[in-house]
Design a protein that fits this description.
By secondary structure, the chain is α+β, with helices and mostly antiparallel strands. It contains 8 helices and 16 strands. A hairpin with a 2-residue loop joins β12 and β13. α1 crosses α8.
């Protein structure tokens, strides 16, 4: 059985749920917004994690779960029961023998962008020259060295990439209260690569916006099309995902004018549906098949195609 965990309004999650249903695979969806109606009991011992989850009266043995796709988002306002369920379930995700997309422990690399950048570089990708500091003088020297500089949050919380122009540079004293990540501006074309197991789905994004994710906010557009990667780059993306222990991830690359690919970061919980809509690639289908194959390996059957 495949479990899905997250919010009912979360498109990447619900799209995979719907695709799994189309494949005719046994599955259950645990909606974080309805945890007050559910119960969870887990025990840990020499034989691993043993427990049951009760979904609106249906009792399920967690030992029968072969794969999980979890996108745990912020819980809606509620009582202690919902918080306790969520905490116990997320803990179980790290300890179950089932395939988990993705384990919480594997997603921690993205909580610190500088730390993750070191892992990316160790995997063989070029990364932008980066400065993390709370010293305005260091930032000014960095800008003088590179000419064009961008900045963003140093944490894993999503933030808008902005350019350090004369207007923002005039407020650099503010970094004394909040260490910030500054990077050399890398010219070129953005390529988001989704890795699903061993499958690679590159999407090219062309936009006049500095941060294409927020192009509409500034009245601009972002054109997404399916793309291809050189074999060494595609192989490197799969190896990077494996290094980070991520069965599903979104890798942010930029192809420079000289053809070199620079890697900015790896998203361990990507909203792939946005790119699937733009590029037309079967990301949800491939993810559903990955989850199904884990189920079939345990039962010895053949996965649907």
């Amino acid at each position: 059985m495949i479990l899905f965990y997250g919010r009912g309004e979360d498109t990447p999650l619900t799209r995979c749920v719907e695709t799994t249903a189309e494949l005719g695979v046994d599955h259950r969806f645990i909606d974080q917004a309805a945890l007050r109606h559910h119960d969870l009991s887990v025990r840990y011992g020499p034989d691993g994690a043993i427990g049951t989850v009760v979904l609106g009266g249906e009792r399920l043995d967690l030992g029968e779960v072969t794969a999980v796709y979890a996108r745990p988002l912020e819980l809606p306002p509620g009582g202690s029961h919902e918080a306790a369920f969520d905490e116990a379930f997320v803990e179980w995700l790290d300890l179950t023998d089932a395939l988990v997309v993705n384990r919480p422990s594997a997603m921690h690399s993205n909580t610190s962008k500088p730390f993750q950048a070191r892992l990316i570089a160790a995997a063989g990708f070029a990364v932008p020259d980066t400065l993390v500091t709370d010293d305005p003088a260091e930032v000014r020297a960095f800008r003088e060295r590179h000419g064009r500089v961008v900045f963003k949050s140093v944490s894993g919380i999503r933030s808008i990439v902005a350019e350090l122009d004369d207007r923002t540079a005039a407020r650099l004293e503010l970094v004394r209260a909040l260490p910030t990540q500054f990077q050399e501006y890398v010219p070129g074309v953005d390529v988001r690569v989704h890795v699903v197991g061993g499958a690679v789905f590159p999407t090219e994004i062309v936009s006049p916006a500095l941060d294409y994710r927020y192009a509409r906010r500034s009245g601009q557009i972002a054109d997404l099309t399916a793309a291809e990667l050189p074999d060494p780059v595609a192989k490197g993306c799969v190896e990077l995902a494996e290094l980070l222990d991520l069965a599903l991830c979104g890798i942010d690359l930029r192809r420079r004018p000289d053809g070199e690919y620079v890697c900015f970061e790896v998203n361990p919980m990507p909203a792939y549906s946005y790119f699937e809509d733009g590029g037309g690639q079967p990301i949800a289908r491939t993810l559903a098949e990955l989850l199904t194959e884990a189920r079939c390996r345990r039962s010895g059957t053949t996965s649907p195609r």
